[in-house]
Amino acid sequence: MPRFDLPLQALRAYLPEVDEPTDFDGFWAATLRESRAAGATAEAAGASGNAVVRTPVPSPLALFDVEDVRFPGFAGDPVRAWLVLPRGLPRPLPAVVEFVGYGRGRGLAHERLHWPSAGYAQLIVDTRGQGSQYGTGGATPDPHGSGPAAPGFLTRGIDAPETYYYRRVFTDAVRAIDAVRTFPEIDPAAVAVVGNSQGGAIAIAAAGLSDGLVAVLPSAPILSDLRRVIGLTGEEPYAEIVRYLAVHRGAEDRIFETLSYFDGVSFAKRATAPALFSTGHMDTIAPPSGVYAAKNHWGAPAELVDYPWNHHEGGESVHWERQAEWLAEVLAYA
Question: Start and end of every Acetyl xylan esterase domain (predicted)?
Answer without folding.
Answer: 1-328
